[in-house]
Design brief:
By secondary structure, the protein is α/β, with parallel strands linked by helices. The protein is built from 5 helices and 7 strands, in the order E-E-H-E-E-H-E-H-E-H-E-H. Bound molecules: guanosine-5'-diphosphate and magnesium ion.
Length: about 200
């Protein structure tokens, strides 16, 4: 099986057309606020170091595309989206990025699903709720991946966090929920299972 590889980055939706995708694998996008662990999760899922892990949040502006032959039913293109809710940029730039990302999400025929990535310690913040509402409205398939479960102090604290977050997610109409730790390689199998399921339709 070939290794995961970086295909390219796109600042604008139209730039995606120019990227050299090799075959017709379904696309899976990872959305979320900065610093929630999107890139770490992508690395853990692909058993690689392809996604950049940032020490300074909010620096990645581009949609980053990775070819991952080992994921899904017939390979996958994993898309690391820029974190929403950038702290360090102007409202105008933020809006432009938002527009380009939503433009791409709404026009990408190969998109099989979107994972909204949320830090398990913080739960859903305003921007996450906006993202979920957008995905719901536009009838895009999505699930929520909670990250950093290893940060909870004990197994019982983890259990309680999972119970509370699951209840919250259910109230919001989220159908698929995953609990993970990239640090400890937890919960990755269930996410991989969803990638296979979502590849089929
Ligand atoms: N303890 C722990 N730290 C994590 C985990 N995932 C990410 N981090 C840390 O959280 C910070 C942000 O991670 P990153 O993947 O860059 O987040 P992104 O901005 O959403 O892509 C980094 O310091 C990571 O090492 C995890 O599962 N457990
Ligand atoms: Mg990142």
């Amino acid at each position: 099986m070939r290794q995961a590889e970086f295909i390219g980055g796109a600042l604008h939706a139209k730039d995606v057309e120019t990227l050299p995708f090799e075959h017709h694998a379904p696309f899976f996008a990872f959305a979320g606020r900065s610093n929630v662990g999107k890139s770490s999760l992508i690395n853990a899922l692909t058993k690689s170091r392809i996604a950049r892990i940032s020490k300074s949040p909010g620096k990645t502006r581009e949609m980053n595309f990775y070819n991952v032959p080992a994921l899904g039913a017939r390979g996958a293109v994993v898309v690391d989206l820029p974190g929403y809710g950038f702290a360090k940029v102007s409202a105008k730039l933020r809006e432009l990025w938002g527009k380009e990302i939503t433009r791409w999400l709404l026009n990408e025929d190969r998109l099989a699903g979107v994972f909204v990535v949320v830090d398990s310690r913080h739960g859903f913040l305003e921007s996450d709720l906006e993202c979920l509402a957008f995905l719901n409205d536009r009838k895009l398939r999505f699930g929520v991946i909670f990250t950093k479960l290893d940060k909870w102090k004990s197994p019982s604290a983890i259990k309680k966090a999972e119970k509370d977050l699951l209840l919250l997610a259910e109230r919001l109409g989220v159908e698929q929920v995953f609990f993970t730790s990239a640090e400890k390689n937890l919960g990755l199998g269930t996410v991989k299972g969803a990638l296979v399921d979502w590849s089929r339709v």
